[in-house]
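Title: Comparing notes on inverse folding

I've been comparing how different people in this forum approach sequence design from structure. To keep things fair, I'm posting one structure and asking everyone to reply with a full sequence. Here's the target:
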């Protein structure tokens, strides 16, 4: 048996921009070792654990599904208090009051990324695996919906990656005043939100082949836009598409302010430079880079537009943030510019949430949720090597079929679940390829390499914001 459908590319392109270039890189000479060691977090288990048949997975208020708050374990407070949020910001305590019966769960390096600690009022501690039965009805159950209220330094991205394979996960990493504004809107159900659910906006930068933006435009943005444009019930009469020369930062700001879309979808390079100016890199990390290679000006955006309950999906390098070490260390030729950029971002920015989602989630009339990547996407994994099916198909289903299922009102984390199902599937296929390699099958090493990168690409998608938020229902 062989794997002829997977052919190793001569180089990889990534959706990042340094200010001068979007560098490509050949694979590292020792890439086989990287391909055959599991990268990332979590264990494939064949999809999401299902609650009992009567429970609907989008109904987080059902105790058989449930919602819980994840905080860092705090050894400075009495163990009897760790079942509460006494050490958390006041808005989070208020959120727990609004969601009675929801547990406080604690992450620690001691427990590892596959587990959470749950304390009781006597100070007793239980270690719960992420594959525990779902719900909030017993001491050994774990809610399906988890809100991490911590920075990625306190609770690492790797935990979110692992939990995404079996749970619906979001993260809030906001200073107290911004957090209070977000929780006020969340508890109030975004009452009076001014975003328009019938006016989705798609903004797609395309610098032409062979640049990766050409492939993202064809496999992600266009299919998503086409789904809304061809809606059988004509539910989206105010759909906006900004493609080609129209995909400028100025037009994006202008149309957001004028149309107030409930769903924003953008594909582009994400800013990862300048490498010689740490402060500037941190200030514009992951910001979309437009048709003219201009970076979206965040102060201009926030001055002109209040998200007011919108959801934003951004497919760009570091759109959600960065990590202290790139998961792709060892994948690329160490002397390449691309490897240097990834190392430079990790060194300069570390484990952080990107400035765009932080600003929008904490604005006066906040964004509901931001969906983005912590690492780059590479061109090789945007299509299946055998079928040529585009990765955008799963994004299209998430943002059109699932987010608007039943006319809207379905949680964003449930809508995005198939992206993480795909991550688990790819990880399983990597394990199969590894077994095939050990059996001496031709082509298995390249298959393992492909599935390793593909599962990381899906797994590095994260939701910022509460996982239960949903697009405004169609009226």
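Reply #1:
Here's my take.
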């Amino acid at each position: 048996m062989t794997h002829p459908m997977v052919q190793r590319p001569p180089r990889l392109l990534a959706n990042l921009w340094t200010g001068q270039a979007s560098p490509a890189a050949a694979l590292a000479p020792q890439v086989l070792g990287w391909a055959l060691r599991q990268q990332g977090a979590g264990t494939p288990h064949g999809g999401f654990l299902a609650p009992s048949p009567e429970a609907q997975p989008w109904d987080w208020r059902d105790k058989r599904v449930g919602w819980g708050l994840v905080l860092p374990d705090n050894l400075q407070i009495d163990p009897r208090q760790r079942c509460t949020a006494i050490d958390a910001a006041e808005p989070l305590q208020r959120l727990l009051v609004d969601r009675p019966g929801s547990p406080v769960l604690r992450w620690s390096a001691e427990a590892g990324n596959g587990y959470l600690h749950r304390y009781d009022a006597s100070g007793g501690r239980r270690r719960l695996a992420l594959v525990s039965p779902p719900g909030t009805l017993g001491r050994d159950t774990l809610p399906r919906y988890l809100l991490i209220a911590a920075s990625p330094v306190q609770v690492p991205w790797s935990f979110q990656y692992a939990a995404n394979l079996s749970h619906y996960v979001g993260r809030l990493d906001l200073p107290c005043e911004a957090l209070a504004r977000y929780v006020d809107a969340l508890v109030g159900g975004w009452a009076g939100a001014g975003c328009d659910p019938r006016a989705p906006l798609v903004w797609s930068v395309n610098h032409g082949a062979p640049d990766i933006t050409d492939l993202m435009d064809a496999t992600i943005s266009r299919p998503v836009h086409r789904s809304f444009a061809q809606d059988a019930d004509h539910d989206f009469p105010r759909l906006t598409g900004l493609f080609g020369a129209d995909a400028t930062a100025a037009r994006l700001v202008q149309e957001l302010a004028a149309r107030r879309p409930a769903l924003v979808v953008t594909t582009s390079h994400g800013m990862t430079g300048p490498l010689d100016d740490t402060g500037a890199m941190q200030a514009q990390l992951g910001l979309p880079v437009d048709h003219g290679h201009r970076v979206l000006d965040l102060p201009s955006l926030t001055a002109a537009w209040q998200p007011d309950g919108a959801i934003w999906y951004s497919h760009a390098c570091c759109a959600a943030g960065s990590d202290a070490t790139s998961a792709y260390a060892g994948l690329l030729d160490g002397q390449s510019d691309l490897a240097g950029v990834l190392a430079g971002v990790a060194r300069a920015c570390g484990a952080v949430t990107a400035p765009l989602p932080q600003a929008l989630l904490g604005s006066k009339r906040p964004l509901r949720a931001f969906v983005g990547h912590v690492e780059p996407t590479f061109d090789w994994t945007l299509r299946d090597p055998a079928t040529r099916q585009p990765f955008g198909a799963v994004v299209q289903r998430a943002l059109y079929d699932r987010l608007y299922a039943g006319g809207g009102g379905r949680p964003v984390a449930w809508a995005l679940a198939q992206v993480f199902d795909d991550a688990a599937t790819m990880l399983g296929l990597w394990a199969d390829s590894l077994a095939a390699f050990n059996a001496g099958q031709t082509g298995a090493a390249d298959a393992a390499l492909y599935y390793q990168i593909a599962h990381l690409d899906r797994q590095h998608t994260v939701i910022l914001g509460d996982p239960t938020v949903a697009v405004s229902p169609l009226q």
